[in-house]
Design brief:
The structure is a homodimer.
Chain A: H1 7-18, E1 23-24, H2 25-35, H3 41-53, E2 58-60, E3 68-70, E4 76-80, E5 86-89, H4 95-102, E6 108-115, H5 118-129
Parallel strand pairs in A: 4-6
Antiparallel strand pairs in A: 1-3, 2-3, 4-5
Helix pairs in contact in A: 1-3, 2-3
Chain A binds a DNA duplex through helix 1 and helix 3.
DNA sequence: CCAATTTTTAGAATCATTCTAATTTTATTA
DNA sequence: TAATAAAATTAGAATGATTCTAAAAATTGG
């Protein structure tokens, strides 16, 4: 089961792996339709869910925004507090440290660093000086 | 402005402060209706949003689940990977460490430790032995 | 090839949340 | 205090992401 991918699952996985842009289901859909005009959004969701369950991709949720999907390799994220822009960042594997501090064994963790991206900084400054 | 709270804002804030249970908008609504039968869900959302903007409460988003609201004081969360159950935990203020590692100045961070709660562990074991 | 299972499709349904417009309340100031 | 402006609340429609259901198509194992 874990080895065999269906036609669409494979393509969706490729799209996510190749894009460095943390795509939403809708974006994956748009992208996939270029080659497979017949696909349907439900198929994207089915496959994204399955791929997540199988641990092949990872879902990133930021409040108020549609879920985005990412490669699975451990890394953290930098999230703009204003616009939700998402960047990869890697602070290394902190699991042991967290487990020790928490005194509990964890499966993994989700670390988001909240910052202001350059665009939002500019907009904020503009607003303030108005 | 930051000092004055409207009638509902104050009550909602109290409900969240008193409950240690990370309530959803719907739960706050149910609770508030006990004293104020006239309130409307939109009022809850309006106020929760305003309270968040003012930095009086904090929104917690976990994929697939409705947003929950929490007191503002810095702390982290333990999230059950299966059922989404949420517990408070505090690993201390790691901002300086994260900023140093990331080489960037951040506003704050969001750390969720993913684990399996006791109930879900039991259910998993039951399933496996079936 | 047949039966069973899995995927995909189509489109309706759900659910949290937001939006709009009207109404009420509160604050301002004349 | 009356009049006006601003803010909060209501009611309910609208949105948008995601899930669900049932049927059709594809794939798999025997």
């Amino acid at each position: 089961m874990l080895v065999i991918l269906t036609k669409y699952a494979r393509k969706i996985l490729e799209i996510i792996a190749e894009s460095r842009s943390h795509m939403t289901a809708a974006q994956v859909f748009t992208q996939l339709k270029k080659n497979c005009p017949g696909v349907v959004l439900a198929t994207i969701y089915n496959n994204l869910n399955r791929l997540c369950e199988e641990g092949r991709i990872r879902r990133i949720s930021v409040e108020g925004l549609p879920d985005r999907y990412d490669r699975i390799q451990r890394h953290d994220h930098l999230v703009c507090q204003r616009c939700g822009k998402l960047l990869d960042i890697d602070l290394g594997d902190l699991r042991a440290q967290f487990e020790k501090k928490a005194g509990i064994s964890i499966l993994s963790y989700d670390l988001k660093l909240l910052y202001l991206c350059e665009d939002c900084k500019k907009n904020l400054n503009r607003k303030e000086s108005e």
